[in-house]
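Worked example (supplementary).
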Amino acid sequence: MKMIPATEGGYALLHEGVQAFADIESNGICIDVPYLNRTIKKTERRITRLERQLHSSKVFKVWKRMFGNKTNLSSGEQLGKVLFDEIGHKSPGLTKSGQHKTDEESLAKVKDPFVADYLNLIKLRGVLSKNLRGLLSEVTDGKIHSFFNLHTARTYRSSSERPNFQNQPIRDPDIGTLVRSCFIPRRGRKLVEADYSGIEVRVAACYHKDPRMIEYIVDTTKDMHRDMAMECYLLQESDVNKSIRYCGKNMFVFPQFYGSWWRDCSLHLWEAIHKMNLKTASGVPLLDHLRSKGIKKLGQVAVGEDPVKGTFAHHIMQVERHFWNVRFKQYSQWKKDWWQQYLDLGYLHTLTGFVCSGFMRKNEVINYPIQGSAFHCLLWSLIRIVRYELKRRKMKSLVIGQIHDSILGDVVPEEEAEFVHLVHHVMTVELPKVWRWLCVPLEIEVDVSPVDCSWAEKEEVSIPRL
DNA sequence: AAACAGTGCGCG
DNA sequence: AAAGCGCGCACTGTTT
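After joint prediction of all chains, the assembly is encoded as:
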C-alpha cells in the first residue's frame, strides 16, 4: 500500500505539519518526577504482594511442577498449558500459531480464582514497565519530548513514540489517575485539552452524505448511540441509561462502522449484560427485560450458520440489516460504490489531497480515507494555532501534545480564555471556511486542569463566547 | 548478542 | 464472499 500527497494542499499539510510537530516536540511535557519515583516504589510493592499471593495458589503449584526453574508468570504460553492442557479448563480458542489464547477476554470465561489475580498482576506489571519506568527513562530536565510522526501510519494519521504520548491510560479510572498524575503543566500554568467531538463520524458523513446521518449530527436533540441501544436491547427511550448507551455506541455502532458484523456484535452486547450487570433505567435486569420480549438466549452459531429465530443473535442480525438497508441506506451505498471504484481504479483519493494505492482489503478501503481525513482536520488546526496564531498574538502558552483528535496546551492562566476561544475558533470556524468539503458542523469539547495540577485533574469547561 | 515473529494491551 | 481501522511498547521464545 502506498499513500502520497497528490495535491498542493496535501503536500503543504505535511510540510507545515512536521514543522508544527517539531515545535511541540521541542516544547516537551513536564513530568512530576518525585511523584513518579514514589509511584514506582508503591507499584513495586503492590506487585510483590500480588506475586506472593499468586505463589501460594493451587494453579501456581501445578505451574511450578510443570516448568520448574523455567516458571515465568509473564509467559502466556506457559499459562495456557497449565490451565488448559494440565488442569483441564476449557480452552477459549487458539492463536494463529496454535497456542491457547490468554488475553483478558479469553481468560474471563475461566472459572478459577487464580485468573483475576493473574490479570491484575499482568496489568500492574505493564503499567510499571511501560507507563512508569518507561516514562522515567525518557525524562530529561523534568520533561519528556515525545516524537510525533507523520510518515509512519498507513492512513496518514500521526503516531507518537519515545514515549508514546498517544496511549496513556484513561479508560480504567484508577490506573488512569495513577499514570496521568505524572503529567503536569509548567509552574503556575494549567493543562488545556481540546478534542473534536465525533470527528470520524462527521468526516465519514462528508464522504457518504447520508441524510439520516447528517440529521443525527446537525440536530443535537437526536442521539444515534441511544437510538441503537434502544433497538439492540428492545428498550424505550426512557429506559436507556449511561451504561446501556455506552454498549450501543461501543458494541454496535462503532464496530459496525469499522466493518464488524452481527455475530460479533451480538456476542459482545450479550456478554455486556452479565459483565456490566445491565439494568434498565427503572431497575429491571436487562436479561429479564429481554425474556419478557421473548428473547431467552444468545443463540451463538458457527460462522456460516444462520441464527435461530427468537435468539438474541437473530435479533441483532435484523437490527444490522435495518441499520444498513433502511436507516443508513446512502452510507451503505457509498461503501459499495467506494469499494467498487477502488477495484476499478486500483487507488482511492482522500478529501484532504492524498492518494492511497496498492493492495487493500475492503474494510481498509472504507476506513483509511475517513481516519486519515479526520486526523487532518486536527492537523490543519494545530498548524494554524502553533505556527500562526500563538506567534501572532505573542502568547506565552504552548501546545505540547496531540492525540489524533485532540490537542494539549500548557497555558498561562491569564491567557486561558483567549486560548480556549482561539482553539475553538480555529477548529470549528476557520477550518470549515477553508475546507469547503466539510458539509457538517464541527464541535469541540475542552477540559482544563487547575493551576499546577496534573492531567488527571482535567475537567470539562464551557466554551466562553467572546 | 541481536534480530525477528508472535502475543497482548494501552490509546484514538 | 467476508466478517473491527490505526498506532507503539514490553515481553517471550526462537533464529541468526
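Two points are worth noting when inspecting this output. The radius of gyration of chain A is 25 Å. Chain A has a mean pLDDT of 95.
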